[in-house]
Design goal:
Layout: H1 11-20, H2 28-38, E1 43-46, E2 51-53, H3 54-70, E3 78-82, H4 87-99, E4 102-104, H5 113-123, E5 127-131, H6 143-148, E6 155-159, E7 189-194, E8 204-208, H7 209-223, E9 230-233, H8 240-252, E10 255-258, H9 267-274, E11 278-281, H10 283-296, E12 306-309, H11 316-324, E13 328-335, E14 339-343, H12 350-355, E15 365-369, E16 384-389, H13 401-406, E17 414-422, E18 428-433, E19 438-440, E20 443-445, H14 447-454, E21 460-470, E22 474-483, H15 490-499, E23 510-513, H16 527-536, E24 542-543
Parallel strand pairs: 1-10, 3-4, 3-5, 5-6, 9-10, 9-11, 11-12, 12-13, 22-23
Antiparallel strand pairs: 1-2, 7-8, 13-14, 15-16, 16-17, 17-18, 19-20, 21-22, 23-24
Length: 552
């Protein structure tokens, strides 16, 4: 089938990856069919209301694929998902893999309807799955009506909040007819994910079956997962970590469980009830779970054997707590662009697990370059700009030639925007970020957007949003302002931000008024210095919590 999406796919590079075994002939759909043939009645997929066997899931995927085809979709068309952690999203993704559509699952709950509309228009999305009430402002803005009017849109599937398909989505045992021949090309673009990026405008990463499965093959092999493994993703299905998990699940053929505890059940209860052997999430998930266990007096996390953590360094006390209860922490570094390419191994010493992101697998190779000149490699052990090449690297950014080109140095190494070093054991040590970004509990928040909206307030002359440390979340947002005269109250500024369109999930949690900001010789605000002053106690911002009023 003809590929109509422009990518950085290189035939010579592809031959190399096939020769070394990091790429293969499998697609996500082909793996689904293989698991169905091998264990049709084994449990495959579970959310808070449904638990499906491989046979049930496979039949449902065929029904969804047939329905999508009847909407007039063709190979390479885009299908988006805006819903909670429910099985319909995964089944739809697999249906897209079958028909050769590019699926876009990265629409976070924190987006507003207008933001979603803009992203889908960029993609020319032909079909979307939307859950009622899902989104930052759907309580007072109807997404269904707005999204249905997008120029390219052919079908809006509406899902109820309850864990049922409803009347607008193919039923679990629905008919499957008129579906096209399955697309068996593992190099097609199958996955589109908007990144949080370094600015407020998300870039859209393109992955093929092969680029996603390359990293997953490494992790399944090196961590010895098999058909008896049960994976619970505490990361949402709108986050790339969950799809790293889904690729692993399809390869090892066990069961995948979403973070979807029924009402009245805590995450810890969900862990104990679903009995995972492998959990994936960010350190905040681990810290919260350990705190709940301590509160209840529990000394064992059910059947859990491995706890994957990415997105922030693992606190040593957290790693030690897992080791003490017989759970192996998996310390991971990666990005949407290259998945979880560096990770510790199960037999690594505890110090390696706690202090490094390991040596990873053969699907990605790292070099460290000068932070000021990314074309100059620095010696081993020196801190610099983390860059990489390999089979799990994306195929580029959708419809963005400039962003794709600017992400590589002159020798073709992908630049992460992060600082790190390779230690004497060839393990990656993450040091910090080159990017002006705040990561709160694994979610990227853009200071520039907060600042740009803040200075629209009549009493705000300048604004600086910067991170303050938080034991549970890693970082929280502090907003410092210089007033024009009359000092605005913190709640007034937060209400202003909300009225201007800032998501409630991006709201500052600390606030302060200053007379002046530290600046560079060229007049730029030194936000790293503000962050350091907050860490060492020189600044004492006031905690604040946004309280939404009726005014909108």
């Amino acid at each position: 089938m003809t590929n109509t999406l422009l990518t950085r796919h290189d035939p010579e590079e592809a031959r190399q990856f096939h020769a070394e075994g990091t790429w293969g002939e499998d697609t996500h759909y082909r793996l689904l069919k293989r698991n169905t043939e091998a264990n049709p009645n084994a449990f495959a997929l579970r959310d808070g209301g449904r638990r499906l066997t491989w046979k049930q899931l496979s039949n449902w995927v065929e029904a969804i694929a047939s329905d999508l085809a009847t909407q007039g979709l063709r190979s390479n068309d885009r299908v988006s998902l805006w819903a909670s952690n429910r099985v319909e999203s995964i089944a739809t993704y697999l249906a897209c893999s079958r028909n050769g559509y590019a699926c876009n699952p990265s629409l976070h709950r924190t987006y507003t309807v207008d933001e979603i509309s803009g992203l889908l228009e960029r993609l020319s999305t032909k079909a979307i799955l939307v859950e009622e009430g899902w989104g930052a402002d759907t309580s007072h803005k109807d997404p269904l009506e707005i999204l249905a009017k997008l120029p390219a849109m052919r079908k809006v599937y509406r899902l109820p909040k309850e864990r049922v398909c409803g009347t607008n989505f193919p039923a679990l045992n629905g008919p499957h007819y008129d579906a096209p021949e399955s697309n068996e090309n593992p190099d097609k673009v199958c996955y589109l994910a908007f990144t949080s990026g370094t600015t407020g405008t998300p870039k859209c990463v393109m992955h093929s079956d092969n680029t996603l499965l390359a990293n997953a093959r490494d992790m399944v092999r090196d961590w010895h997962h098999n058909k008896n493994s049960r994976l619970l993703s505490l990361s949402p299905l709108s986050h790339h970590i969950a799809w790293v998990g889904i690729a692993q699940w399809l390869l090892f053929g066990g069961e995948f469980v979403t973070d979807d505890p029924p009402a009245g059940i805590t995450k810890l209860d969900w862990i104990l009830e679903t009995e995972p052997t492998y959990i994936m999430g960010v350190p905040t998930h681990a810290i919260d779970t350990l705190a709940e266990m301590k509160k209840r007096g529990l000394d064992k996390m059910g059947t859990v054997e491995v706890f994957y953590m990415a997105g922030a360094p693992i606190p040593p006390a957290t790693a030690q707590a897992f080791v003490d209860m017989g759970i192996t922490p998996q310390n991971v570094y990666g990005m949407t662009e290259n998945s979880s390419h560096h990770y510790t191994w199960p037999d690594d010493p505890q110090r390696t697990i706690c202090e490094t992101c390991g040596r990873g697998g053969k699907a990605y190779h790292l070099k460290i370059f000068d932070s000021e000149n990314p074309d100059i490699e620095v010696p081993q052990g020196e801190v610099g700009h983390i860059a990489g090449k390999g089979a799990c690297l994306m195929l580029g950014y959708f419809d963005d030639q400039r962003a794709t080109e600017e992400s590589f140095n002159k020798d073709g190494w992908f630049l992460s925007g992060d600082l790190g070093l390779i230690d004497e054991n060839d393990c990656l040590r993450f040091v910090g970020r080159l990017k002006d970004i705040i990561i709160r509990g694994g979610k990227n928040i853009h200071p520039k957007k907060i600042e740009d909206l803040s200075i629209k307030h009549p009493n705000v002359e300048k604004a600086a949003a910067f991170p303050v440390p938080d034991e549970r979340l890693g970082e929280c947002v502090c907003l410092a302002i210089i007033s024009t005269g009359d000092e605005p109250k913190g709640q007034d500024v937060l209400q202003h931000l909300f009225n201007e369109g800032l998501s409630i999930y991006d709201m500052p949690e600390y606030y302060m008024v200053m007379n002046e900001f530290p600046i560079t010789a060229s007049g730029k605000t030194l936000k790293r210095e503000l962050a350091e002053w907050a860490r060492n106690g020189r600044l004492k911002p006031d905690p604040i919590r946004f309280t939404q009023t009726d005014k909108q």
